[in-house]
Amino acid sequence: MHSTRTAGGRVPARAALVVLGVLAVSALIPSGGSAQAQAPPKATGEPTISGRPVEGAVLTASNGSWSGTGPFNYTYRWLRCPASGSGGNGEGCSPISGATFKRYSVRAADVAHRLRVRVTAANSEGSATATSNATGIVQSAAAAGPPRNTTAPSISGTPQVGQTLTANNGTWVGQQPVSYAYHWRRCDTTGSHCSDISGATAKTYVLTSADLGTTVRVRVTARNARGAASTTSPPTGVVVKAEAPGGATVAVADVSLPNRLIIDKLSFSQQPLRSRRTFTARFHISDSRNHSVMGALVFVVAIPFGSTTTPPETPTGSDGWVTFRMTPTRMVKFGHRGSIVMFVRARKPGEPLLAGVSTRRLVNLSVR
Predict the structure, then answer these.
(1) CATH no. for 42-141
(2) Confidence (pLDDT) at 241
């Protein structure tokens, strides 16, 4: 065996190796002469939650950052909190049964609440807990998904050439915000066999002569970050001609409900009636929109029946007036105050006598 020479003489090689080992261990011991102490965990950065707060989604907890002697063992507790918020350490929140993993699937019971996660780090020296900030308010799956229509769009306005129609969006659920787009469609009188109207993509649409005799629908497309969906409104009524200005004359064919005929003016050639000579009775027919009506059929009969001759039903002229010639019979007595009551009716040709846009009125002719 080899030996090592020292100041005092030779030292065996085995002894030299022992000495070197002791020197190496000594170099690892701090100058204070004791081993480094173990430190318990201490939170230096709060945990966070990733994922969308939506029913059915999966949220993931991050551990946050910690000081102390690692490695650490982490455990988790998910909390359900009020929508209005909670204290910094989750005060006011309730632990969710069974929710003790790093990942959490959002439940229906979480809708309209906020969620937080409490992370506990532990080592051999102890443990510490830190709580994340709250998520946004949890939404239902429907409220957070692509748009879905729950009430169909509708159209407001009068279906008449020259009038403006306005699309009402209807009701939609889905992730907010939602934007809307429109396309107006021209259909047959039943609302079927529709085609897109070129360039009609605004919220409003002005009816043109091309729409006369058709119905109109609007297709509303709702769009959000999750997708898009479209729904079409019910049809309007059949589009009619542009309305004449007030005071103008219209044909009776253009008078339709809810518009009605009105007997608004009358005159007699003798007032009061003093003899059995033939007299004239004139009546003016208008509609409820202040138009004179041409072509309305007017009928007049005296009451009691037979007190005057009864002329045939006659249409109004281009000024809305109709004139009848009537002769009193012997039933009428002169020389004292009295009157002849007349029943007057105006109607639209082809409609029932007492239905549709028809109107009736009782008038009096004084007798002396």
Answers:
(1) 2.60.40.2700
(2) 86
Fold of the domain built from segment(s) 145-232: Immunoglobulin-like (2.60.40)
The reported pTM is 0.51
- Which residue do the tokens 């239905």 mark? 355
Structure tokens at 366: 């004084």
Superfamily of domain 249-367: Immunoglobulins (2.60.40.10)
42-141 and 145-232, same CATH topology: yes
Tell me the per-residue pLDDT of 259-291, one tens digit each, with 9 for 90 and over.
Answer: 999 999 999 998 999 999 999 999 999 999 999
- Cα separation, 301 vs 170, in Å, equals 53
Q: What is the mean pLDDT of residues 163-189?
A: 95
Residue 189's closest CA among 161, 215, 158?
215
d(CA 221, CA 153): 10
Strand partners, 51: none
Distance CA 55, CA 175 (A): 12
Max CA separation in the chain (angstroms): 176
* Whether the Cβ atoms of residue 304 and residue 323 lie closer than 8 Å to each other: no
CB contact set of 259 (below 8 Å; sequence gap of 6+): 287, 288, 289, 357
Q: pLDDT (tens digit, 9 = 90+) per residue, 138-175?
A: 988 888 889 999 999 999 999 999 999 999 999 999 88
- Count Cβ atoms below 10 Å from residue 105 Cβ, excluding itself: 13
Backbone angles phi, psi at 23, to 5 degrees: -65, -40
CA dist., res. 41 & res. 123, Å (int): 7
Domain map of the chain by residue range? 42-141, 145-232, 249-367
Taking CA atoms, 170 is separated from 138, 141, 231, 235, in Å, by 25, 20, 9, 14
**% of the chain residues with pLDDT over 90:** 78
- Nearest by Cα to 357 from 301, 285, 249: 285
